[in-house]
């Protein structure tokens, strides 16, 4: 149990450090960033100055990952909305993220940490995690946020959903692809690709196992945040099996 939590904590720490390294020596912008409110309206930050996620010259590959049946938000007892839950919401052991448009289906094998579990591996308090999850504290006002952690009970494989705020690292125009390229710098012959995943184009990278498990990351920029899904696989677990409990969320 403890080693599993330590492995998840290592992934979360690395997620934040990746953006911290290149920011050294940069000057803080003169204009302070003011976080929006999520109490009364959907927040759609300005698109001005934002780089496109892909160009015509970048090939988009199919992942061929299996996934469960799409979930329709209107069929849920409580429809998840971005007005109050930009971090996503939980219902009956599953996680729904309308901000990015995917759901993690919990079952007897794959479980989702509650706020207390996430707090333990992130170093936050349970109240601080809940403040982020329920919009009391805006994700736009913190550098990184852990929105969800799913884990496989029998093996310790896990999936961590993180939000990265490039603006607070003084790299406001960074794309999801550029973020993952930071991960690849320390490895030889490791490249970032653009893939079709969960109905959208994500940047993707697979990193070699260095004792903490085989790690595959999918990243996408939504508004002014980069959302990262990090699969860490243990033993005989495969990415195909792990991705099978993650599906698209239909919000229309």
Task: Describe this entry's structure for a reader.
The chain is of the alpha+beta class and 252 residues long. It is built from 5 helices and 13 strands. It has helices at residues 2-20, 115-122, 126-133, 176-184, 239-243; strands at residues 60-62, 71-72, 89-91, 94-97, 102-104, 110-112, 144-152, 158-164, 193-197, 200-207, 214-222, 225-233, 246-250. The strands form 2 sheets. It has an 8-stranded mixed β-sheet with strand order 1-9-10-11-12-8-7-6. A hairpin with a 2-residue loop joins strand 9 and strand 10. Helix 2 (115-122) packs across helix 3. It starts with a helix and ends with a strand. The relative contact order is 0.21.
Main pleated sheet: 8 strands, mixed
Could you estimate the helical fraction of the residues in percent? 10-25%
Low-confidence region ranges: 20-52
Radius of gyration: 17 Å
Quaternary organisation of the protein chains: single chain
Cα-to-Cα separation, first versus last residue: 39 Å
| Average predicted confidence as pLDDT | 80
H and E order: HEEEEEEHHEEHEEEEHE
Which structural category do the helix and sheet elements fall into? alpha+beta
Beta percentage is 25-35%
Molecular shape: globular
Q: Count the beta strands.
A: 13
Counting H and I runs of at least 4 residues, what is the number of helices? 5
Q: Strands of the largest sheet, in order across it? A: 1-9-10-11-12-8-7-6
């Amino acid at each position: 149990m403890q080693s599993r939590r330590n492995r998840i904590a290592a992934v979360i720490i690395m997620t934040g450090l990746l953006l911290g390294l290149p920011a050294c020596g940069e000057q803080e912008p003169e204009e302070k960033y003011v976080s929006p409110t999520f109490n009364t309206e959907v927040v759609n930050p300005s698109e001005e100055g934002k780089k496109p996620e892909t160009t015509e010259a970048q090939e988009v590959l199919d992942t061929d990952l299996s996934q469960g049946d799409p979930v329709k938000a209107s069929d849920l007892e409580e429809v998840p909305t971005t007005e109050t839950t930009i971090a996503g919401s939980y219902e009956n052991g599953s996680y729904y993220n309308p901000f990015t448009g995917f759901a993690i289906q919990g079952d007897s094998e794959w479980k989702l940490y509650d706020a207390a579990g996430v707090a333990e591996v992130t170093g936050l308090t349970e109240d601080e995690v809940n403040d982020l999850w329920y919009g009391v504290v805006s994700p736009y006002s913190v550098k990184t946020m852990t929105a969800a952690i799913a884990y496989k009970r029998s093996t310790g494989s896990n999936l961590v959903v993180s939000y990265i705020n490039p603006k607070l690292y003084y790299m406001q125009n960074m794309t999801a692809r550029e973020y993952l390229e930071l991960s690849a710098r320390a490895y030889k012959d490791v490249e970032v690709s653009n893939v079709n995943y969960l109905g959208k184009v994500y940047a993707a990278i697979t990193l070699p196992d260095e004792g903490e498990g085989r790690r595959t990351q999918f990243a996408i920029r939504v508004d002014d945040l980069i959302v990262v899904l990090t699969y860490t696989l243990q033993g005989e677990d495969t990415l195909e099996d792990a991705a099978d409990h993650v599906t698209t969320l239909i919000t229309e």
